[in-house]
């Protein structure tokens, strides 16, 4: 079994659908670990829609900040954990004034310790556009890019999703 996978792509690129297909193929007891927080009406509707769409296929765990702890706990009962998404998690850490680099390092250490459960990480690639015009957005972009690099090194497979199509960056093709 492939251990850990990183799935990157732009907004609405099909990365989550691709990751869900990987998770369903890979495990018999998959968990969906969501990092989003429903802070407004539109986000509450999105979260509810996502919960409904995957209810019969995944156990849902919601954790906006303590990702490593949630992965370790979920690994006791699940053979595959889909984490969606890292960029929302990074945003949550920034908004809580927590150390993102330290949290990413902890996540990497957690992945290295998890042996019997596959972890599939989904994240938005935010480094392909223009340089953001404000310091916070530049910091976010830089932290996301660093996180992606660190996690891609740890993961056995990495994919970039464009128009719903996976481009294999590392490992064997999952087409």
From TrEMBL:
<dbReference type="GO" id="GO:0008820">
    <property type="term" value="F:cobinamide phosphate guanylyltransferase activity"/>
</dbReference>
<feature type="active site" description="GMP-histidine intermediate">
    <location>
        <position position="50"/>
    </location>
</feature>
<dbReference type="GO" id="GO:0005525">
    <property type="term" value="F:GTP binding"/>
</dbReference>
<feature type="binding site">
    <location>
        <position position="84"/>
    </location>
    <ligand>
        <name>GTP</name>
    </ligand>
</feature>
<feature type="binding site">
    <location>
        <begin position="34"/>
        <end position="36"/>
    </location>
    <ligand>
        <name>GTP</name>
    </ligand>
</feature>
<keyword id="KW-0418">Kinase</keyword>
<dbReference type="InterPro" id="IPR027417">
    <property type="entry name" value="P-loop_NTPase"/>
</dbReference>
<keyword id="KW-0547">Nucleotide-binding</keyword>
<keyword id="KW-0067">ATP-binding</keyword>
<dbReference type="InterPro" id="IPR003203">
    <property type="entry name" value="CobU/CobP"/>
</dbReference>
<keyword id="KW-0808">Transferase</keyword>
<comment type="function">
    <text>Catalyzes ATP-dependent phosphorylation of adenosylcobinamide and addition of GMP to adenosylcobinamide phosphate.</text>
</comment>
<comment type="pathway">
    <text>Cofactor biosynthesis; adenosylcobalamin biosynthesis; adenosylcobalamin from cob(II)yrinate a,c-diamide: step 5/7.</text>
</comment>
<comment type="pathway">
    <text>Cofactor biosynthesis; adenosylcobalamin biosynthesis; adenosylcobalamin from cob(II)yrinate a,c-diamide: step 6/7.</text>
</comment>
<keyword id="KW-0342">GTP-binding</keyword>
<dbReference type="GO" id="GO:0005524">
    <property type="term" value="F:ATP binding"/>
</dbReference>
<feature type="binding site">
    <location>
        <begin position="51"/>
        <end position="54"/>
    </location>
    <ligand>
        <name>GTP</name>
    </ligand>
</feature>
<dbReference type="GO" id="GO:0009236">
    <property type="term" value="P:cobalamin biosynthetic process"/>
</dbReference>
<feature type="binding site">
    <location>
        <position position="62"/>
    </location>
    <ligand>
        <name>GTP</name>
    </ligand>
</feature>
<dbReference type="GO" id="GO:0043752">
    <property type="term" value="F:adenosylcobinamide kinase activity"/>
</dbReference>
<dbReference type="Pfam" id="PF02283">
    <property type="entry name" value="CobU"/>
</dbReference>
<comment type="similarity">
    <text>Belongs to the CobU/CobP family.</text>
</comment>
<protein>
    <recommendedName>
        <fullName>Bifunctional adenosylcobalamin biosynthesis protein</fullName>
        <ecNumber>2.7.1.156</ecNumber>
        <ecNumber>2.7.7.62</ecNumber>
    </recommendedName>
</protein>
<keyword id="KW-0169">Cobalamin biosynthesis</keyword>
């Amino acid at each position: 079994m492939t251990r850990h996978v990183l799935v990157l792509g732009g907004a609405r690129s099909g990365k989550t659908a691709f990751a869900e297909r990987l998770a369903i193929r890979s495990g018999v007891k998959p968990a969906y670990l969501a990092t989003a927080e429903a802070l407004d009406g539109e986000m509450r509707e999105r979260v509810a829609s996502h919960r409904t769409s995957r209810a019969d296929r995944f156990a849902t765990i919601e954790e906006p900040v303590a990702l490593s702890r949630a992965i370790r706990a979920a690994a006791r009962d699940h053979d595959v954990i889909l984490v969606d998404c890292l960029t929302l998690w990074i945003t949550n850490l920034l908004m809580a004034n927590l150390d993102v680099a330290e949290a990413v390092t902890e996540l990497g250490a957690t992945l290295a310790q998890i042996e019997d459960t596959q972890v599939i990480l989904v994240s938005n690639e935010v480094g392909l556009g223009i340089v953001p015009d404000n310091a916070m957005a530049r910091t976010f972009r830089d932290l996301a890019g660093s996180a992606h690099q660190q996690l891609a090194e740890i993961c056995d497979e990495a994919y970039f999703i464009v128009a719903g199509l996976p481009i294999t960056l590392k490992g064997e093709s999952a087409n």
